[in-house]
Amino acid sequence: MKYEAVIGLEVHTELQTTTKIFCGCKTSFGAEPNTNVCPVCLGLPGVLPVLNKRVLEFAVRAGLALNCEISRFSKFDRKNYYYPDLPKNFQTSQFDLPICERGHLDIEVNGEKKQIRITRAHMEEDAGKLVHHGTSITDSDYSLVDYNRTGTPLLEIVTEPDMRSAKEAVAYLEKMRAILQYIGISDCRMEEGSLRCDANVSVRPVGQKELGTKTEIKNINSFKGVEKAIEYEALRQAEILEDGGKIIQETRTWDEKEGVTKSMRTKEEANDYRYFPEPDLAPFTVSEEYIEDIRKTLPELPDERRERYIANFGLSSTDAQYMTNDKDTSDYFEKVVAAGADPKASVNWIMGEFASQLSNAGIEIAKAPVTPENLAKLLALIAKGTISGKIAKKVFAEMWKDGADPEEIVKAQGLVQISDTGALKELVVKVIANNPKAVEDFKAGKKKAVGALVGQIMKETKGKANPKVINELLNDELKKL
């Protein structure tokens, strides 16, 4: 029997505020454990929370960017459960009256477009962080608790079960991250936990309308992890059903090292949390004027920017998608083009040599030592024929060391491309004379023989000869033979 996966995602993003959602503690990442805490976020007796107005603004901003309806009347609720990283034994969240509802986000996978419905987006506080002493939560001897993250503002964005593959889930996450970055409410650094994903996965026979029993995979912190975890879990469930077994509704964790999901606990239902309205925070209203004021501040979003790149820069749909998936990459690209570089050449370098150097250095594009203006200068040197593409890679490697100006590197190292027809013609005649075997191969119809001759000339000139001029001269001389 053939099965299909049914996937829904819950994305938790930390909002980029300077202070926590209900107190004045800092939200900075990397502080010493248990230093960014106070009686409010630790839930000590007699304290009262106060909503950070910036959190509400960011939530409305996200809702508008995700095509959601913004609730005019909303409130906070207590979600009751016990866990070591939750000092109050309840989480202040939103239950039946979330700030955002009924939105959608469009994705494209393998050329096919699809709309993913967003059920809701609500504000809540983050819990603390368990530091496990072992390779993972399932094999640790003990865990320590850091409460610095407790009370950090979160926006939880929940989809309908509209995705049918791990690739669709990743496409949704990439688009979601881009939108949240563009509107400036989160840095979305998955490695720091500011963007986390829970995946609800079930399988069912193809053609069946009823949903299967789902499992929830908690806190996956990379796109690759999301793809692998969903693929593994869907296959695991399909094999159980094929063998006549039943799926247990449970919470599972993704073990990156072993490449498997592992059971953590049976899945809770909403009534297990005993939700009730938060008595220390009054319900609040959001005016039409407030919403419209925020709507006016929304920037150009990824889809709009992508269409502009296709229309104005002549980029392919794939290239435009790549250039808009990450805001920092898109901003860098815009600056390179603004400095006079050809858009397509800029894309090729950013996706190729530039991306390779970023990967090797393990840094993001915002921290790249090569400025957009200097990359544009390098591309101009190639376009003018001052240097070849091969030499450009050598120059770029030098630029990467300390951000040096490419024109100065070319001048200092004598890397200017040789395009003098007279000088190159003498060399072409010499190389032809010294390589009779290649010449005979050419006469015998082996066109690749020209490549061997070009290689000899490039070797003689230490890679500085203009390939276009060489090929033209070679063809002219070989025709005479």
From TrEMBL:
Which reaction equation describes what this protein catalyses? L-aspartyl-tRNA(Asn) + L-glutamine + ATP + H2O = L-asparaginyl-tRNA(Asn) + L-glutamate + ADP + phosphate + 2 H(+); L-glutamyl-tRNA(Gln) + L-glutamine + ATP + H2O = L-glutaminyl-tRNA(Gln) + L-glutamate + ADP + phosphate + H(+)
* Family matches, as PROSITE patterns: GATB
Sorted alphabetically, which keywords does the UniProt record give?
ATP-binding, Ligase, Nucleotide-binding, Protein biosynthesis, Transferase
Q: What one GO molecular function would you report for this record?
A: glutaminyl-tRNA synthase (glutamine-hydrolyzing) activity
EC number annotated for this UniProt entry: 6.3.5.-
Tell me the ranges covered by the Asn/Gln amidotransferase domain, including all copies: 331-478
Q: Name one GO biological process term.
A: glutaminyl-tRNAGln biosynthesis via transamidation
- Whom does it interact with, and what assembly results? Heterotrimer of A, B and C subunits.
Into which family does the record put it?
Answer: Belongs to the GatB/GatE family. GatB subfamily.
Role this protein plays: Allows the formation of correctly charged Asn-tRNA(Asn) or Gln-tRNA(Gln) through the transamidation of misacylated Asp-tRNA(Asn) or Glu-tRNA(Gln) in organisms which lack either or both of asparaginyl-tRNA or glutaminyl-tRNA synthetases. The reaction takes place in the presence of glutamine and ATP through an activated phospho-Asp-tRNA(Asn) or phospho-Glu-tRNA(Gln).
What's this protein's name? Aspartyl/glutamyl-tRNA(Asn/Gln) amidotransferase subunit B
Q: What is the originating organism of this protein?
A: Dialister hominis
